[in-house]
């Protein structure tokens, strides 16, 4: 699948997900390019009269939602019925997220939702999660967390926008360590170990999160419950 085919698959997945949204739904608005397609499609439905509110998971999602005319709310004011979010890897109900560094707020909103619908292109589906795990850390905790990740068998790397730039700073003002652990066939233990490290805000292992997956294909969308 080349880049433009992937982009079309993402758009198809995002647009199909919005078909699951009914009047009165409070929608968790995920981050990334696939979720952005869903947010724009939801905006078109709102234009056509659909009555929903959105809870954005990032500055990016918020900007797109405002632009698309989706009324926004917060977790303080509403219960999220359905979250629509992207993923970097999908293995059954387990996800790896955080490619855009938004996984902390994504996990809060996705966990609060009654149901999580994951939208992605087919390259995201894998047998076993094996990409580096994004770990958002308070800036002061960067070195001790990196040391602890090494003790857990991982190889941490501070995320930078490019070689010349400084570190990527998350929407929450924190740093991100991308931590290579190799294949993670049973990520529950590692997820708990990472969560327990002082200074870790959130990591990108979303264990047992996906209720439904919309995978865009070359010409259609496959929808399944993992
Ligand atoms: O977790 C995320 C951001 O933190 C995204 O959902 C994930 O990176 C997928 O992005 P895309 O749909 O652009 O491939």
From TrEMBL:
Keywords of the record: Isomerase
Entry GO terms, CC: cytosol
Pathway it works in: Carbohydrate degradation; pentose phosphate pathway; D-ribose 5-phosphate from D-ribulose 5-phosphate (non-oxidative stage): step 1/1
UniProt-recorded Gene Ontology molecular function terms: ribose-5-phosphate isomerase activity
UniProt EC number: 5.3.1.6
Reactions the enzyme catalyzes: aldehydo-D-ribose 5-phosphate = D-ribulose 5-phosphate
One BP annotation, GO: D-ribose metabolic process
Catalytic site positions: 106
Enzyme class: isomerase
Superkingdom to which the source organism belongs: Archaea
Binding site for substrate: 31-34, 85-88, 97-100, 124
Membership in a protein family: Belongs to the ribose 5-phosphate isomerase family.
Subunit structure: Homodimer. Homotetramer.
Role according to the record: Catalyzes the reversible conversion of ribose-5-phosphate to ribulose 5-phosphate.
Name assigned to this protein: Ribose-5-phosphate isomerase A
Organism placement in taxonomy: Archaea, Methanobacteriati, Methanobacteriota, Stenosarchaea group, Halobacteria
């Amino acid at each position: 699948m080349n880049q433009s085919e992937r982009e079309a698959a993402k758009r198809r997945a995002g647009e199909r997900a919005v078909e699951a949204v009914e009047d009165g739904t409070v929608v968790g608005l995920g981050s990334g390019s696939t979720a952005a397609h869903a947010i724009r499609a939801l905006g078109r439905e709102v234009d056509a009269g659909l009555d929903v509110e959105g809870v954005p998971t990032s500055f990016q999602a918020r900007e797109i939602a405002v632009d698309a005319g989706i009324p926004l709310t917060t977790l303080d004011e509403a219960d999220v019925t359905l979250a629509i979010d992207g993923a970097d890897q999908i293995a059954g109900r387990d996800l790896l997220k955080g490619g855009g560094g938004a996984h902390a707020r994504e996990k809060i909103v996705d966990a609060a939702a009654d149901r999580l619908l994951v939208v992605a292109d087919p390259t995201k589906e894998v047998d076993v999660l094996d990409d580096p795990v994004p770990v958002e850390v308070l800036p002061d905790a960067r070195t001790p967390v990196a040391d602890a990740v090494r003790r857990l068998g991982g190889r941490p790397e501070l995320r930078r926008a490019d070689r010349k730039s400084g570190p990527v700073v998350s929407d929450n003002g924190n740093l991100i360590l991308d931590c290579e652990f190799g294949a993670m066939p049973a990520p529950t233990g590692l997820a708990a170990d990472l969560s327990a490290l002082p200074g870790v805000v959130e990591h990108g292992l979303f264990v047992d999160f996906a209720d439904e997956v919309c995978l865009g294909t070359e010409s259609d969308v496959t929808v399944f419950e993992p």
